[in-house]
Amino acid sequence: MKNVKILNNKFPLVAIDNSLEKLRNKIMFPEKLEKANKMLLTAKLPKNMHKD
């Protein structure tokens, strides 16, 4: 990703490198993904204090 010359915009323009498309559907860290999914399944949410 590289910055493009800023004109009179409030936000900088960013050019996206098209070579990153080959990584779109690839899972980079399958072990960490599996661990994170397991943690999400077993996580306990706090009780809802605001009942309508």
What does this protein structure show overall?
The structure is a single chain. With 52 residues, this protein is α+β, with helices and mostly antiparallel strands. The chain has one helix and two strands. The protein has one helix at residues 30-42, and strands spanning 2-3, 14-15. It has a two-stranded antiparallel ribbon with strand order 1-2. The N and C termini lie far apart (47 Å). The mean pLDDT is 81.
Key terms:
single chain, 52 residues, alpha+beta, 1 helix, 25% helix
Q: Largest sheet, order of strands side by side?
A: 1-2
- What would you call the shape? flat
Overall radius of gyration: 20 Å
What string gives the helices and strands in order? EEH
Largest sheet: 2 strands, antiparallel
Name the structural class: alpha+beta
Q: How many E strands?
A: 2
What is the end-to-end distance?
47 Å
Name the beta content range: 5-15%
As residue ranges, the low-confidence spans are none
State the gist of this model:
Helices cover 25% and strands 8% of the residues. A two-stranded antiparallel ribbon has the order 1-2. With 52 residues, it is of the alpha+beta class.
